[in-house]
Amino acid sequence: MSRYAPVNFPAVKLEGKFWHERLETVLTRTIPSQHKKLAEYTILDSIKLPSPPPPLRFPRHPNGFTVQVFWDSDVGKWIEAASYALAHRRDEDIEAKIEAIVDDLEKAQADDGYLNCWYLGREPEKRWTNLRDNHEMYNAGHLLEGAVAYFQVTGRRRFLEVMERYLDHIYSQFGTEPGKRRGYDGHEEIELAVMKLYYLTGDKKHLDFVTYMINERGRQPHYFDIERQAREAGEGKQPYVFSNYEYSQSHKPVREQDKVVGHAVRAMYLYTAMADLAAEIDDPDLKHACQVLWDDVMETKMYVTAGLGPSAQNEGFTHDFDLPNQTAYAETCASVALIFWAQRMLHLDLDGKYADILELAMFNGALSGLSRDGEHYFYANPLESDGTPTRWDWHTCPCCTMNVSRLVASVGGYFVSTADDGVAFHLYGGIATDAEIAGTKVALREVSTYPWSGDIKIHVDPASPAAFDVKLRIPGWSSGAKVSVNGQAVDISKTVNGYLTINRTWAKGDVVSLDLPMPAVRLYAHPGVIMDAGRVALKRGPLVYCIEEVDNPGGRVQRLKLPRSAELQAETRADLFDGVVTLKAKALAIKEGDWKTLYRTTPPADDTATLTALPYYLWANRGQGSMMVWVPEVQ
Amino acid sequence: MSRYAPVNFPAVKLEGKFWHERLETVLTRTIPSQHKKLAEYTILDSIKLPSPPPPLRFPRHPNGFTVQVFWDSDVGKWIEAASYALAHRRDEDIEAKIEAIVDDLEKAQADDGYLNCWYLGREPEKRWTNLRDNHEMYNAGHLLEGAVAYFQVTGRRRFLEVMERYLDHIYSQFGTEPGKRRGYDGHEEIELAVMKLYYLTGDKKHLDFVTYMINERGRQPHYFDIERQAREAGEGKQPYVFSNYEYSQSHKPVREQDKVVGHAVRAMYLYTAMADLAAEIDDPDLKHACQVLWDDVMETKMYVTAGLGPSAQNEGFTHDFDLPNQTAYAETCASVALIFWAQRMLHLDLDGKYADILELAMFNGALSGLSRDGEHYFYANPLESDGTPTRWDWHTCPCCTMNVSRLVASVGGYFVSTADDGVAFHLYGGIATDAEIAGTKVALREVSTYPWSGDIKIHVDPASPAAFDVKLRIPGWSSGAKVSVNGQAVDISKTVNGYLTINRTWAKGDVVSLDLPMPAVRLYAHPGVIMDAGRVALKRGPLVYCIEEVDNPGGRVQRLKLPRSAELQAETRADLFDGVVTLKAKALAIKEGDWKTLYRTTPPADDTATLTALPYYLWANRGQGSMMVWVPEVQ
After folding, report:
1. Which of A227, A414, A500, A605 is the most exposed place for a label (fewest CB within 10 A)?
2. Strands A535-540 and A631-634, sheet pairing
3. Residues of B numbered 369-398 whose beta carbons fall under 8 angstroms of chain A's beta carbons: which are they?
4. Does the CB of B582 have a partner CB in chain A at under 8 Å?
């Protein structure tokens, strides 16, 4: 099979209403308001060196840690998100703000290329002494992603050159060569960032560095032990931020890892880079490890919303089937990072099972992290609420805020991939792009109101007639899909690994019709997920639904029960969020009645009720109230 | 109505198998093993002053706190529990161990009477500077309870005198008089302890101190503010262990409190002392506050097991109806302390509603804290488990271990109360005692296998015929109770506030028969308790049941569902724990079947199954496994 590569997002025009609205909100509200928050929280002051850094806003925890050590990454992520936004519409004000940051970073950079504002400003003598806890390479990775994005969109090289100098410094310090330390970061990120620079420049030194980093992780003697012993020789016994190596996926060499463990975002960033590298150096063992880890997540550890990591304690994974709903951590960043990983896996094999999860995370666990107004966030994304959680306008650790904005600002990049001899559609929702396929320029336009409807038209307009593949993803959630080309039915049974390949000679005016029926369905969880026993989740197309108190007045939604036989009716609601499809069903509701005590022997009576469900990603945009994804089912 | 007062436990002989077994276990296993643990954890070393105290075993938290500041209380509680045990059977070895501790305490005591081993050993200059966090008076209270118990059982005054000197010192420091500080402890406890000393000595200074403490709590300017400012003047800004005054029920004066808040054990100890004082100084406002707080707990905040405090975060209360099962904190100490409070409330009004809760807590939320072998404990008592929690053989903060042992060792004291003209039976289970009623010596013997059966015989044998009341508690959970005297039926409809009064002239050989039918029943929770919606708890008599994996093999118990129509069959099982009554029902079990994915659209099938339930207090005595109190119900 030809190798498919994603059409990068600047080349993809988002015409569909769903993503166009999200993108506009991010451009006009999220990016500017995030810059204000970076200023307000003195994060922008922290990179103005050599002036003294601002006072510690978040004092060090007794374990020695403060979130301020990763403020550089927030700056990098904002530049990355803002740059993606600029690709859609240039903006002088935003560009000036980025340039000002680059000025500061350039000034801050040490003569030897080192550039970490925490260490430069506060404890320059301690640089590279605590990779385990202090995110030094992680920060470099995020700055680098920002620099790559800014260069790609504006062609301005200055920030990129700053970062290339910094990387040269890093490469001079770490590696297997004599005189170098065999270190790697406790928080993976730099690996996937450097892969981006490698794709941009083709300079093999970058690939070599990532290869070194992936190979070194988890080896014995353990670098974090060596490093800790060195610190303790100087400073005496030191506390751990987190006292096991599973937390940072460094408990064993990555090719030997077969269970997903530890901090969820770290895990996803690592696996993303592993998949990148497996493709690039054609390493079957590394690819196999990625596949085994993928299956482990899918079979035992993912919320139905594509949320990952049930536990706040380690911001990550616990044991198989442990997926509590109300206390779900399911960090926004983890679902965003799952999208990165899924995209890499998809391009290893062009298997729709990866695109299914990419889409699931996109529309649910990731998108839920951003409010409708574009200025409020969820860090944790629970699947049930008693009404207490609300969206934040910022967060002590603002990682999620800019992870979701950079995702939305670059969402076009996930829709289409091309190869020499074909084009593959992964996502639907209304996009237009031009591609070079089989030596011909082809205008592609996919028109739909997806995810609200599965009625999709794809216009394939080659400059001149040309034979190539058009591959359509037939989502794993769909059943009874129909495809036709210019009105002529195509045999859907020829779908392989979730993609239907149509090979023909395409000519101007050709239209592919894809009809994905979208009945609302009930989902049941594996009985191992004891929290969901006797419960049902509702889904329509790629959207997971929830029931919110505001749509189901009369008390907390947890009183509702859905009969198995109740018909689920989709209803287009133009009055809600500028047009959404809700689900309605006849249900039962526990009658509060007249209780004098907490417990009694008479069961509460049931009222009949109408259950109204809303796409999960939209919850908590209309004030506080109870919410539930997994609804008790009665037969 | 005559004032009823409890017959103290040394006068009550536990003849029934249920409590006799628990008591023997505590005497022979719990008390000795706890002394070993006190030694092993260097708690006994910490009171050996002026020798240097042992090294910090539990380093100070960054907020400045270490659990070691309340090690004195553990010593006090052990002496209290051990003394109660001695009342049943004197033991030279235990007495020698207590005497050795008293030697140490006497040596440690400062010339001015002060006696807190943490401060004396480590920071003598800081005594009385942090009542908010450091449990100084709380420790004094527990030592005092130990001293009172030891004196009552052995007649030895030495420890009591040590504590009386210490109290005189405390009284000289705190109060409303000029020159004294208006302090009180962040952790209530000394109030109820000093009430015991008042009952023992009749010395009004003790009552005055408790009156001051209860009146002062929560007044403005707030003592904890004043104290903190004084500390900060000397040492700079200081962290809070817990940054609100609800935590310690000092957010407003106690008579104005109408919602139960904060740390559950603190709350219960406070309310116990409030009820004591309300009775003693005849204060209707204080009594009213107790009643309002009682109703708040009962209507919105108590687990069906009489567990209290859902949250580990504040070891206490959150909002109304927040009663999560798997994460329930429900500290053993809190249920023990609820028993104390319920006993005081019961004696304010002789209302069976208090005895119902006393009994519920005794047989469920408190007793569950102690293992069958008497040497393992639960600190938290969840109502559902995925199989992870296990009983501990000790705890960083061993408060619960000795709370449950002192309860069991003194359980006889909760059975019977007497007044000048009558006797009231609150609990059943086989006891014998002699009492002076209506000027006559009366031998009383209650014979039953309660809680396994409600067939109860009470032998009333006055030395000579005498007219007096025999009051029988007719439990709130019972229905269809029958009472007869010497075979003559008594009209049960004359039961008032949960007590049936039989007034007659009693003569030797009189036998009262009480028949409490004990069908297994289903309990339903108030719909506000969203965690229990669609679920049912099983109860028989005073015992709440749970289903454990060991009795329901085939996977985690969370797969089980109980049809509403299924008959609940009580079954006496001589093979289990030396004889218990289990419950059996025909049920359904979700079939694990062949799942390839975490989620699917086909519902899992159900198998038929037999559900076997065991009394909750016995769970986790046969290895690890899943457990559930609230079982999903299907109709």
Report:
1. A605
2. antiparallel
3. 386
4. no
Q: What is the dihedral of CA A228, A229, A233, A239, to 10 degrees?
A: 40
Instruction: Express each pLDDT in A589-619 by its tens digit.
Output: 999 888 889 999 999 999 999 999 999 999 9
User: With DSSP H G I counted as helix, E B as strand and the rest as coil, what are the percentages for chain B, rounded to 5?
Assistant: 40, 20, 40
> What mean pLDDT do residues A64-72 have?
91
Taking the C-alpha atoms of residue A313 and residue A317, their distance in angstroms, rounded to an integer, is 10
DSSP-derived pairing of the beta strands B599-600 and A520-525 = antiparallel
% residues pLDDT > 90 (chain B): 92
β-strand pairing of B499-506 with B440-447? unpaired
Positions of E strands within B175-267:
none
Q: Is the pLDDT of residue B1 over 70?
A: no
Helix (H) or strand (E) holding B632: strand B631-634
Cβ-based contacts of A536 with chain B (< 8 Å): 603
Whether residue B263 contacts residue B246, with contact meaning beta carbons closer than 8 Å, is answered with: no
Which is catalytic among the residues A117, A290, A333, A399? A399
Contacts of A604 in chain B (CB under 8 A): 524, 527
Q: Residues of B with CB below 8 A from A298's CB? A: 597-598
Averaged pLDDT, A282-288 = 97
What one-character-per-residue DSSP string does B255-284 give? Answer: GG--S--SBHHHHHHHHHHHHHHHHHHT-H
Residues written for chain B:
635
Confidence band for A391, pLDDT divided at 50, 70 and 90: very high
Interface test with chain A among B568, B599, B631, by most A beta carbons within 10 Å: B599
Q: B487 — contact with chain A (CB < 8 Å)?
A: no
Give pTM, 2 decimals. 0.89
ipTM of the complex: 0.93
Q: What does the pLDDT average to over A79-101?
A: 97
User: Is pLDDT at A562 greater than 60 in this prediction?
Assistant: yes
**Would residue A436 show up in a list of annotated catalytic residues for this protein?**
no
Cα–Cα–Cα angle for B143, B149, B152, rounded to 5 degrees = 140
pLDDT (tens digit per residue) in B33-45: 999 999 999 999 9
Adjacency order of strands within the sheet including A482-485? A13-14, A431-437, A440-447, A455-462, A510-515, A482-485, A488-490
What is the phi/psi pair of residue A546, to 5°?
A: -140, 165
**How far apart (Å, rounded) are the C-alpha atoms in residues B539 and B546?**
9
Q: Which residues of B touch A596 (CB under 8 A)?
A: 299
User: Would the pLDDT of B593 be above 90?
Assistant: no
From A555, which residue of chain B is nearest by alpha-carbon distance?
Answer: B528
Q: Please check whether residue A602 is in contact with residue B479, taking contact to mean a CB–CB distance below 8 angstroms.
A: no
Q: How far is A339 from chain B (nearest CA, A)?
A: 18
pLDDT digits (tens, 9 = 90+) for B390-447: 999 998 899 999 999 999 999 999 999 999 999 999 999 999 999 999 999 999 999 9
